[in-house]
Each structure stands twice: as C-alpha cells, then as structure tokens.
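user: can you give me the structure for this one chain? tokens are fine.
assistant: on it. calling the predictor now.
[tool input]
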Amino acid sequence: MQDSSDQSRAKHVEWARQKVASSRSALSPALLKLYKIHPLRRLIRKWARRLEGGEYFSHTRREIQRKFHGVTVGEYSYAGCLRPGVLPRGTTVGRYTTISLYSHFYSENHPFGWLSQHPFFYNPRVGPVGRDARLAEPKDGLRIGSDVYIGDHAMILPRCRYIGDGAVIGAGAVVTKDVPDFAIVGGNPARVIRSRYPESAIEIIKKSRWWERSLPEVIECLPEMMREIDDSPSWHPLLREACTMPADSTCSDHSNVESAKDTDESAQAIS
C-alpha cells in the first residue's frame, strides 16, 4: 500500500514538473512584440495559453498583464486576474488566487460632491478635460493576496486597497473596505462572516507562507491538501516547520492594515 502511495505522489510531482517546464514558450518574446498590434491581442492571448500549458501556468499571459495592462499576477492565479480590463492598473495579485471573470473592480467614485457627476467634467475620454480630474492625488494600487477567492459579481469599491491572503469574497458581495487575511466576507456592504480557520491555525499558515513553495513541492502533498485544516495542523507537511517557529516570527502580516470606514460607496461606484 505504501509503495502504491509513493508511486502516486511521484506521478503527481512529475505532472507538476512538466507543467512548470512548459510554462515559458520559446516564442514568448515574439508573442510579446506582436501584442503591440491591437487587432492581434485576443489571438496572442489564446496562443500563449495553448503554448504554455493553459492560463494557470502561462508566463507570457502574466507578462502581457504586467507590461501592457499594469497588473502584476503571481503564479497559478487565473481567470479574472489574466483578463485585460477586469483589474485596474496598479493592482498586484499573489499566487494561487481565483478571481471571477464576472467580478467588478472600481478605482474611483463618481464625484458626488461636485455640482455635476457627469463624465464630461472628469473623464478625458468623453469630455474636454486633459486628465481624469478625480485623480488629484495618487493612491496605492489594490493589493490582492495569495490563495484568495473572489466570487461572481462581487464588487470591490475604491476604499478597499487590500484583500488579505486566503480571503474569500462571496458572490455578489459589495466590498467597501480592506479585507483581513483568511476572512470570509459577504453581503452589501460586505461584512466578515467568519474566518476560514481557527486563529491558531491562521498564525501557523501565515508563518508557513506555503504558497511561495514550488508547484512540485505543493503537489507532492496532494493528499494532505485535500483535508480540512483543524486548530492543530502540524500533521500537514507544508505547515509542520511553521508549527515550531517562534510566535513572533509571522512574515509579512498585513492583517493589521487599517480598514477604511464604511461609507455609502455602493451608490457611488463608477459605471
């Protein structure tokens, strides 16, 4: 039985290695040059996906997002992360993140405090203004962590600048402020429903930063990846080392980012 399990793990690891090896095509530089020709863009994205093992793996798709659309996407993140126009410029996305193609992100509100909210007075694409008049001050881009799930028709409004690692945003949620690590949020306006895991497990997972490991390392633990996490997850190979780390050694904890106050943003999102 053990031999069979070892063979299965070896097979899974080999699959991962092959996928990683095929994720960067020799044609990538040529595809990036051709992407400058706007009528070819959809075709180039399709070719990149086929040549590089699908959008979960494609290096070229990520380079397209970074160089031409101002969005940085980590490995194995997919769907809306890689669709031009879904995420605003300046957004960064971690690894293993899922963003619905039907989610909506807004970087600015209508100027409801002005005499008029009409785009003639702020949008250079339709009015006589030389630049977007709402952008008086630069703001940090939206940061989306690793292993995040954002469901269909979720709306991320301008006051939200950080979505934490492991967060879940339910379908149809209207997010008006930052989302803590490993929080499950939903509703309008979105509220924290609960955490994905017990607090003790969250601290261990944050210290482990398992999503930074190579795909073969993670896939080698496939049986363990398919089990529920409890309050003492030392049984998981990717978390075992973190269980022995000092309590104050949490890495890159952004969960204390100050959340913006709730506002009536659901009525202000730009169309």
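assistant: here you go. The chain has four domains: 1-69, 82-106+142-190, 108-137, 197-253. The longest helix spans residues 2-21.
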